[in-house]
Amino acid sequence: MDDKLEGKLDQAKGKVKEEAGKLGGDRSTEVGGKVDQAKGKVKEAMGELKEELNDDEER
Fold it and tell me: Is there a contact between 11 and 40 (Cβ–Cβ < 8 Å)?
């Protein structure tokens, strides 16, 4: 699986985790979900950068 897709999945999982923490009153889980979302955004951005670099190399 490429980084871009993994990043999107990590963001989705993080959002679910965040919401579960809010509903359950578990601040640690809520914050962990936000951290997971941030990591997912970074991974997605890395995937986009890799795609751009590959496109530039092919030209």
Answer: yes
User: What single-letter amino acid sits at 22?
Assistant: K
8 Å CB contact between 23 and 32: no
Residue 43 vs residues 10, 20, 23, 25, 56: alpha-carbon distances, Å: 9, 23, 27, 28, 20
pLDDT, one tens digit per residue, over 10-59 is 999 999 999 999 999 999 999 999 999 999 999 999 999 999 888 877 76
Return the domain boundaries, the chain. 3-58
The pTM of this model reads 0.85
Q: Which two tokens stand for residue 20?
A: 């579960």
Please give the DSSP secondary-structure letter assigned to residue 25. T
pLDDT at position 17, please?
98
